[in-house]
Design a protein that fits this description.
Distance between the termini: 11 Å
InterPro entries: FeoB_Cyto (IPR041069), FeoB_GTPase (IPR050860), G_FEOB_dom (IPR030389), P-loop_NTPase (IPR027417)
Largest sheet: 7 strands, mixed
Organism: Anaerotignum propionicum DSM 1682
Strand order of the largest sheet: 3-4-5-2-6-7-9
CATH architecture of the largest domain: 3-Layer(aba) Sandwich
Keywords: Membrane, Transmembrane, Transmembrane helix
Helix content: 55-70%
Oligomer: single chain
GO molecular function: ferrous iron transmembrane transporter activity; GTP binding
CATH class of the largest domain: Alpha Beta
Protein name: Ferrous iron transport protein B
Order of helices and strands: EHEHEEEHEHEHEHEHHHHHHEHHHHHEE
């Protein structure tokens, strides 16, 4: 059994999604945001019960479409998966990026958390590189006030070049104000001029070498500056999807190929390979987010999050982070495996006692052996075995992980493991999947071992 690139990596994603419109004039709005910023609250508040749910094509990532109307326009809202970035290290991130890129939404609403705006601005900046019509909705303004955090919304809007609105998603008035802005953006009353991130000089020179060509040929389909960056990053999977979307092979264009060679030479002369280029791009995004946050967010209590930062230093440190993580995961394993033995035995005893009663009943009514074999020894016995073996560890494991997530520890585990998981085209968030597989296989037969190793950029799990 193995976690492969095709099952968990970027190949698991397809950007095709059928948008279900109630009217041909409906406009499409993408709803983006980091996890746990109240994006679903905004979505539910705007759409109510007018929703359609399903999966994104080719994956188990859930999508939700909803409908809402203003006095002037009807909209289809697409709730894309919560993500911290559009760099596509996971299926959720790629789904979010691909819909913004290739789904042709009329506008993108990026929901942010007012209590940690700086972190959320990273996604805002990346979204503005792709889409022009971006609206920033800063949710949880009441929580920010409670923590004595003040945000200059007008100043932030000037910095970003797009509309910004403060909101409390639970209040209908906030959502009405948000939709008023959506109306004005989609009908052209408000003109968005998104901030253009200025990267290091050598990156800007490389962009300048190919952007004019891309702008002339494909500027009406994709943002030429963003497209230039992605070509320079040499993300093969994304480039395949871009080629499919454009209906051409970018590198078959001799003019573009010549310009691209020039751009690559510029980067090589600055000792920038694709990985270092990505690092520099991320650094620039983070730096811009920090500058904007410092100029627009006022913390009356400068030490309001000092305890969180102190905890982060301990839990994500190279010295203490891994030992603590291993100890906690070992504790979860022990509680799950040891604690589930007793309820499993009890369930097994009860369920298989019922099997004896069923067998006696079939004998009493003189049922044929083949019917008894199918229904009792087949269907019921398998069901009883699955319930007695699987239910107890799941009933213990998931609540424990829920507690760790609510305490904010699982994101720190994902951070600690992200670099390692990237080597197999996965991401740190898949630590939960790895733990589930290990517990299931171990619990199924504790006398056998589970071996996990890295080979050719894949995590291979062997149950031996």
């Amino acid at each position: 059994m193995g976690l492969t690139n095709s099952s968990i990596g970027l190949n698991a994603v397809d950007f095709g999604l059928e948008i279900i419109k109630q009217s041909p004039t409906d406009k499409i709005i993408a709803l983006a945001g980091n996890p746990n910023v109240g994006k679903s609250t905004v979505f539910n508040g705007l759409t109510g019960m007018k929703q359609h749910t399903g999966n994104w094509p080719g994956k188990t990532v859930t999508n939700a479409q909803g409908y809402c109307s203003t006095k002037n326009q009807s909209y289809v809202l697409v709730d894309i998966p919560g993500t911290y970035s559009l760099m596509a290290h996971s299926a959720e991130e790629e789904v979010a990026r691909n819909f913004i890129c290739f789904g042709n939404p009329d506008a993108v609403i990026v929901v942010c958390d007012a209590t940690c705006l700086e972190r959320n601005l990273n996604l805002v900046l990346q979204t503005m590189e792709i889409s022009k019509n971006v609206i920033v909705c800063i949710n949880l303004m009441d929580e920010a006030r409670r923590k004595n955090i003040k945000i200059d919304v007008d100043k932030l809007s000037k910095h970003l070049g797009v509309p910004v609105i403060g909101a409390i998603a639970r209040k209908r008035k906030s959502l009405s104000a948000l939709m008023d802005i959506v109306d004005k953006v989609t009908n052209g009353t408000i003109h968005c001029s998104p901030l253009s991130i200025q990267y290091a000089e050598e990156i800007e020179d490389a962009i300048s070498a190919i952007e004019p060509i891309l702008s002339r040929k494909y500027g009406n389909l994709l943002n030429s500056r963003w497209l230039s960056l992605k070509i320079l990053e040499q993300d093969e999977q994304l480039l395949k999807e871009i080629n499919a979307y454009l209906g051409v092979s970018l590198f078959s264009d001799s003019e573009l190929s010549a310009a691209l060679e020039n751009a690559k030479n510029i980067l090589e002369n600055s000792n920038l390979d694709p990985d270092k280029l990505k690092d520099k791009i991320v650094t620039s995004l983070v730096t811009f987010a920090e500058k904007i946050s410092k100029d627009t967010v006022l913390y009356e209590n400068q030490n309001y999050n000092s305890s969180d930062r102190n905890i982060d230093r301990i839990l994500t440190s190279k010295t203490t982070g891994y030992p603590i993580m291993l100890a906690l995961l070992a504790l979860v394993f022990w509680l799950t495996i040891t604690g589930s033995n007793y309820p499993s035995q009890l369930l097994s005893s009860c369920l298989f006692k019922v099997q004896d009663y069923l067998t006696a009943f079939f004998q009493f009514v003189n049922a044929p052996d083949w019917l008894h074999g199918i229904l009792v020894l087949g269907v019921y016995r398998v069901l009883a075995w699955v319930v007695s073996v699987m239910l107890p560890p799941m009933a213990i494991f998931f609540p424990l992980f829920t507690l760790l997530e609510d305490a904010g520890y699982l994101p720190r585990v994902a951070y600690n493991l992200d670099k390692t998981f990237k080597r197999c085209n996965a991401c740190g968030k898949q630590a939960l999947t790895m733990c589930m597989v290990y517990i299931f296989l171990y619990y199924k037969n504790p006398h056998k071992g589970v071996l996990v190793y890295l080979k050719n950029r894949y995590y291979v799990i062997i149950w031996c």
